[in-house]
Amino acid sequence: xxxxxxxSARDLLRRNGDDMRAAIEGLPPDALNWRPAGDDxxxxxxxxxxxxxxxxxxLAVAVDAPLPARDRPTEFEYTARDAxxxxxxxxxxxxxxLSLVDKSRTVDWSAxxxxxxxxxxxxxxxxxxxxxxxxxLREHVGQISLTRQLWEARRL
Amino acid sequence: MPTDPVLASARQLVxxxxxxxxxxxEGLPAEALNWRPAGDAxxxxxxxxxxxxxxxxxxxxxxxxxxxxxxDRDSEFRASAGDPAAFLRFVDELSGDCLSLLRPAxxxxxxxxxxxxxxxxxxxxEVAAAYALIHATEHLRGHVDQISLTRQLWEARSPxx
Lengths: 156, 161
Description:
The structure holds two protein chains of two kinds. Chain A is mainly α. Chain A is built from six helices and three strands; from the N terminus they run H-H-E-H-H-H-E-E-H.
């Protein structure tokens, strides 16, 4: 029987993917790169790039896969040329995430894993990394949806 | 209490989200709790908190195989906070319910299938206990961040005197 945590994570990743794509589709470049409350906030493009890169990293930690290269600060500097470019980036990162939670894997959820950032000397349950990967993604999908609402209200 | 790494992780993450939700609600006047940052297309902090807590309690009950609490999902989106102190008590009460659910007396079988009885919005009719737990954790986190961002927008719009 496939691991219920892996199959559930896949289902929820897909739902988040649908919600993120819906919040991006049809927006012009100005909206994708707009910061709703100035420099202290992030654009839809930056949040999408950061959240999926982070999800991929945490899922790799969860299932004990090799960690992809990551430069966290630059994730927030990303700007999208248009919605098609951003959607292509999003689709590619979602595919990477889905492959990490492939149902054929066997994972010991009680295993302790090191934080992906080697400068942080922390050990976490594999289960924690999986749950955090999903909750962090949902957090940012919510931000993206709200940013779109604010953009649309701003133009009224 | 069983030492299940999945449960221990969920308890820590849900606990953090609930603390942040409370901090984002505390100290706001009723006007701020009921303010919609982008008009009718968006939700107020009162709506988001009521919905997030109602959904979390329901999904955690499903995950644990506990009796499902009463819930009228549609009414959560019509919620308003007339009295900020009473609203904070409501937040504390539902948060306590959620945390209690994560301290079961017996081990949880994460492969067990749970019937959603159509109570979880657009959820499938039957889900694994693991799905209910992960969804409870991520759904709460998503709305807590929206609440926090809505408070930031309120404060930016209406600076303290």
